[in-house]
Amino acid sequence: MASFNLPFFIDGTLNGQRYADFLSQQLPNLLEEVPLETRLQMWYQHGGCPAHNARVARTVLHEMFPEHWIGRGEHISWLARSPDLNPLDFFVGNVKEHCLQ
Q1: pTM
Q2: Region of residue 26 (phi > 0: left; psi between -120 and 50: alpha; otherwise: beta)
Q3: In this model, does residue 56 exceed pLDDT 90?
Q4: Sign of the dihedral through C-alpha 22, 24, 27, 30
Q5: Name one GO molecular function term (predicted).
Q6: Full DSSP string of 12-78
């Protein structure tokens, strides 16, 4: 995304309500530049943070990305430590390990 609104920071501690507010109020603005055809094929992935799994946040995700989001215990379950879903987590770790040798 080539947006001037990135990165987006949330004031205070992230909780379920703040995350739900971000999803419903800020994320649509960040996705405006993405063509509709692309948005219709997008999947939303988030991690195992408690705020991501709060009922209020999951409700918003069900409304915005019906059956197109990846999360713990949902339509597509979150696969923790999966290199397929988190390539950068594994890439950075491997680079760090290589550099420290």
Answers
A1: 0.70
A2: alpha
A3: yes
A4: negative
A5: nucleic acid binding
A6: SS--HHHHHHIIIIIHHHHTTTS-HHHHHH--EE--S-GGGGSHHHHHHHHHHSTT-EEETTSSEE-
